[in-house]
Design brief:
Blueprint (H helix, E strand, L loop, with lengths): L2 E3 L7 H12 L4 E4 L4 E6 L3 H11 L8 E3 L3 H6 L6 H10 L4 E6 L6 H4 L4 E5 L4 H10 L3 E2 L14 H8 L6 E3 L10 E4 L6 E4 L5 H8 L30 E5 L5 H13 L3 E5 L9 E4 L4 H17 L4 E5 L8 H10 L2
Parallel strand pairs: 1-8, 4-6, 5-9, 11-14, 12-13, 12-14
Antiparallel strand pairs: 2-3, 3-7, 4-7, 5-6, 9-10
Helix pairs in contact: 1-6
Bound molecules: adenosine monophosphate and magnesium ion.
């Protein structure tokens, strides 16, 4: 499993060509996008896509996002391409927004877990763009981590999770956004936000005129409207507990229990310390910077041997919705 390092802005064409050759040959390759690292495979080749599910241990009912180089390529995979998709694509593509539309027959059922819809995204990361253009095929690419675990925002996170399962990892440095794309379902008359992301719900609603925000997760085993709706997701190996201020009684109860077991405790804070913890990671007190550092922080707390991670809950405001979503799922 070689890891090949590239300049994130001007990646070496010979490395890109190597990735593209593997992908066209039905292999999987991990590469950076602006959200998190993706584990890509030719979305038109069911055998290749099966390798993604195998490598990640991902349940077959959890559909994949298909990445394409531009809007024209996205249109070819939709049947039909809705009008609202044009407005959203104009404004946010390339970028951290995924659109769910009715699928064309070019997309095999394994990609969509049998759903009649497909999730499409045009990533902005120059490495992802270069690989898509060189491969010349749409790439199914979920996050490059074992299913249910913390996503990878750096190549070494991919190595840790999938290192012995993928033939090539392209290292383009840490990702810019840090959390997964927002997912908007346009396959029904009323647009629905299936997964919050760095693009705010209010901005999406303003452009669309209307936006439904469903709550709760789909029943396990059923085809999920969105994989981000799996209840437990993005989770570190340690137990993660949210607290809401230094007086939160949960802190004292959990700290006492951890002490009794001799377990190492970590804290992930942006404002208020929970008290005495062995390992403290502080993230910026604003959502974009927090999101950028979140997965690195969770990987680090795991690596430093924390068995319990106390996480200061971010404010319950729309700006923090995507970060809160990931933290709640990681702690469930
Ligand atoms: P990840 O596992 O992080 O790559 O996330 C995959 C994302 O794909 C989820 O959040 C889903 O919203 C989305 N997704 C993929 N296919 C579909 C689909 N056909 N319908 C709804 N959501 C989908
Ligand atoms: Mg994932």
């Amino acid at each position: 499993m070689p890891t090949l390092r590239v300049d994130p802005l001007t990646p070496d064409p010979s490395v890109i060509a190597r990735a593209a050759a593997l992908l066209r040959n039905g292999e999987v390759v991990a590469f950076p996008t602006e959200t998190v690292y993706g584990l890509g495979a030719d979305a038109t080749n069911p055998e290749a896509v099966r390798r993604i599910f195998e490598a990640k241990g991902r349940p077959a009912y959890n559909p994949l996002i298909v990445h394409v180089a531009d809007v024209a390529a996205a249109r070819r995979l939709a049947a039909p391409w809705p009008e609202a998709a044009d407005a959203l694509a104009d404004r946010w593509w390339p970028g951290p927004l995924t659109l769910v539309v009715r699928k064309s027959p070019a997309i095999p059922d394994i990609v969509t877990a049998g759903l009649p819809t497909v999730a499409l995204r045009v990533p902005s990361h120059p490495v992802a763009q270069a690989i898509l253009r060189a491969a010349g095929v749409p790439l199914a690419a979920p996050s490059a981590n074992l299913s249910g675990q913390t996503s990878a925002s750096q190549a070494r996170h991919v190595e840790k999770s999938l290192g012995d399962r993928v033939p090539l990892i392209i290292d383009g440095g840490p990702t810019e956004v840090g959390i997964e794309s927002a997912v908007v379902d346009l396959s029904n008359p009323t647009p629905r936000l299936l997964r919050p992301g760095s693009i705010s719900r209010d901005d999406l609603a303003r452009l669309l005129g209307q936006l439904e925000v469903p709550s709760g997760a789909a029943a396990p085993g059923a085809a999920l409207p969105s994989p981000g709706m799996l209840d437990r997701h993005y989770a570190p190996a340690a137990e993660l507990v949210l607290y809401s201020g230094s007086q939160d009684p949960v802190i004292h109860a959990r700290l006492a229990a951890a002490r009794a077991e001799g377990a190492r405790v970590g804290a992930l804070v942006h404002h208020t310390l929970p008290g005495a913890c062995e390992t403290i990671v502080a993230l910026p007190p604003e959502p974009a910077g927090y999101a950028r550092g979140l997965y690195q922080a969770l990987h680090e707390l795991d690596e430093r041997g924390c068995r319990l991670i106390l996480v200061e809950a971010p404010p319950a405001t729309p700006a923090w919705a995507a970060v809160r979503d990931r933290l709640v799922r990681a702690s469930s």
